[in-house]
Design goal:
- Helix content is about 40%, strand content about 15%.
- By secondary structure, it is α/β, with parallel strands linked by helices.
- The protein folds into 2 domains: about 260 residues, no CATH class; about 290 residues, Carbon-nitrogen hydrolase (Nitrilase/N-carbamoyl-D-aminoacid amidohydrolase), CATH 3.60.110.
- α3 packs parallel to α5, α5 packs across α6 and α5 crosses α7.
């Protein structure tokens, strides 16, 4: 190797370009335009998730409903978003929905994907709420105490309708025990209660000092990111909130003062059978025997009407087009001979009529129903009405509002392979009923509904409105099977949600629920202690019987065989919600739709500053 090779190589060195000189003002502006750290947004989102979960069952600590959105609203107050804000808000929403809906997984292992999918869908509404509220506050210059409740209710309205609707966990549902407040539901639906609670959250959120947000890293020391309203505007928002709340309470106090005449005496038969047994033919006889035995105990208290839960008459009811031939009938279901089909049809009707005759009472019983028509075999989830005065099956209501992925597969008719992805493929899916029904029992008009139908506000309102074209409805009758959820918080939340249907329609509701919670609910949404509570398990096992619906801590008894007997508290009042429908929530929904259209138009119209709102 030559010395030249060992000599260090001289390289030309180009000095870096000089840094641009920036003024102090430019440095401050650059710092202000940079997104804030993620820590604060994540903390606020998770705090809202935790508070909101605690406001609903199983804890059901209603006062938290008035503060659960306060952390999240801080992200609406900020003039500029934090780093990854919407993704973190979605994460908080997902944490809430996974925790709140965890009861879904209890039905079966195949429900895990459904639980996760529904939770992921519900979580989408949280970043939507923040984004649309930010547009309303920072672009439309609406007061925080108006923008927040309007957007929140508009999104609840959308969630109640999109993809057949999911009307659970409305913010107003946290207040179901504050009876005077929820009376406004007969004007606005449960949405009006949600509006007031969201407005209260916004008023409190506006009072949170900026120093607290600085400590979380969401606001700088000079508070430039914040759209702080003048103190006078804050006080106006607080005053408006208190004024509306006061007006609602005055209305509720006045409206709730009414007499409820005693109506028909009803016995609710509550079985305690895991839903896994429902499809086991070897269990059908035992289920019938237990329900028949409890019906016999109820007869001692002379009910006018006896109600069994959803699908608890496991032998089913069948009907056949009288013009169908045996070969046509056997072609619909090759596994059943025509004579066996017709014999089963007659036997089921005879069993129901005999039970009614023995009880000397009308019956409403939940059952599967199969209708054989030329070229079509339809399977329904039904409520069967037996009139003992004429010893006849006098009516049948087929469930109209089916549960997606639980009772049918959306788009399965279009995409047949979808049917094979779920355990209820083929015959286990049900058809949708075609119309509402009114059962007439002892001169009273009863509107039946099945399972989660009592959680859908516009559906129940339509049922009552359709029935009241002739005469006022006397009672709503809900048949439910909550045995899928093994005594979880679903039972409590289902009961709380159904109470709002009574206030909205000013119609009492009786619920017969497999595994519980069966109940009598008056037109004020009050869950009434029955006149008679029979603990059938205690009678069978010779233990000390429970004599009330609740334990010493005030929690409802679940997962027991029981009989509840009481007179229905009739309600003579009428409801504007029944007459006008979802006018209030639809207005809020229209504002949300306008915000979406306006925001999209601005973004694609070249206004990139919308990213901050």
């Amino acid at each position: 190797m030559s010395p030249a090779t060992l000599a260090p190589t001289r390289r030309s060195h180009t000095p870096p370009p000089p840094l641009p000189q920036m003024s102090v003002e430019e440095i401050i502006d650059q710092a202000r335009s940079a997104p804030a750290p993620t820590r604060g947004a994540l903390t606020l989102s998770l705090l809202t998730a935790a508070l909101m979960w605690a406001a609903f069952a199983p804890l059901a600590f209603g006062p938290l409903g008035w503060v659960c959105l306060v952390p999240l609203i801080q992200l609406i107050r900020l003039e500029r978003p934090t780093r990854r804000m919407y993704r973190l808000v979605y994460a908080g929403g997902l944490a809430f929905s996974l925790a709140a809906l965890q009861w879904m997984r209890l039905g079966d292992t195949w429900m895990y994907p459904a639980w996760i999918a529904l939770s992921a869908y519900v979580a989408l509404y949280f970043p939507l709420f923040v984004g649309l509220s930010r547009s309303a506050v920072h672009r439309w210059k609406l007061p925080l105490t108006l923008a927040v409740p309007t957007v929140w209710v508009g999104l609840e309205f959308a969630r109640a309708h999109i993809m057949s609707g999911f009307a659970w966990y409305f913010l107003g549902h946290t207040q179901f025990e504050w009876n005077r407040l929820i009376q406004i539901s007969d004007i606005t639906g449960a949405y009006g209660v949600s509006f007031l609670v969201a407005m209260g959250n916004a008023a409190l959120a506006a009072c949170v000092p900026w120093s607290w947000l600085k400590r979380l890293g969401t606001a700088s020391l000079d508070g430039h990111e914040a759209a702080a309203p003048p103190p006078r505007r804050q006080w106006i928002g607080i005053g408006a909130t208190l004024a509306l709340l006061g007006a609602a309470l005055i209305y509720g106090t006045t409206r709730a003062e009414t007499e409820f005449p005693a109506g028909p005496r009803v016995a609710l038969i509550q079985g305690n059978f895991p839903s896994s047994l429902k499809h086991d033919p070897s269990q059908f006889a035992d289920m019938f025997t237990v329900h028949r035995g409890m019906t016999g105990e109820a007869v001692k208290h002379q009910p006018d009407l006896i109600v069994w839960p959803e699908t608890m008459f496991r032998f089913g009811v069948r009907s056949t087009d009288p013009d169908m031939t045996d070969s046509e009938l056997e072609a619909l279901h090759p596994g059943i001979k025509a004579e066996d089909w017709r014999a089963s049809e007659a036997e089921s009707r005879r069993a129901l009529i005999t039970l009614s005759d023995e009880s000397r009472a009308d019956l409403i019983i939940g059952s599967d129903a199969l209708d054989a028509l030329p070229g079509n075999l339809a399977h329904y989830n039904s409520a069967v009405f037996v009139d003992h005065t004429v010893s006849s099956v006098a009516g049948r209501y087929d469930k109209v509002h089916r549960v997606p992925f639980g009772e049918y597969i959306p788009l399965a008719d279009t995409f047949a392979p979808l049917q094979q992805l779920f355990p209820f493929a083929g015959e286990m899916g049900i058809s949708a009923g075609r119309k509402f029904h009114v059962f007439r029992s002892g001169g009273r008009r009863l509107v039946p509904m099945i399972c989660f139908e009592d959680t859908v506000p516009h559906l129940v309102r339509s049922m009552v409105a359709a029935a009241e074209t002739e005469q006022q409805v006397d009672c709503l009758v809900n048949l439910t099977n909550d045995g899928w959820f093994h005594g979880s918080s679903e039972l409590d939340q289902h009961l709380a949600t159904s109470a709002f249907r009574c206030v909205e329609t000013r119609t009492p509701l009786v619920r017969a629920v497999n595994t519980g919670i069966s109940a009598f609910i008056d037109g004020n949404g009050m869950i009434r202690e029955p006149e008679v509570f029979l603990d059938f398990d205690a009678r069978r096992h010779d233990t000390r019987p429970r004599t009330t619906m609740r334990d010493a801590a005030g929690r409802f008894h679940k997962q027991l065989n029981a009989v509840l007997v009481s007179h229905v508290p009739l309600d003579p009042r009428t409801s504007l919600y029944v007459a006008w429908g979802d006018w209030f929530a639809a207005l809020c929904g229209a504002v949300c739709a306008a915000l979406v259209v306006w925001s999209v138009a601005k973004r694609f119209g070249g206004d990139r500053s919308m990213a901050g709102a």
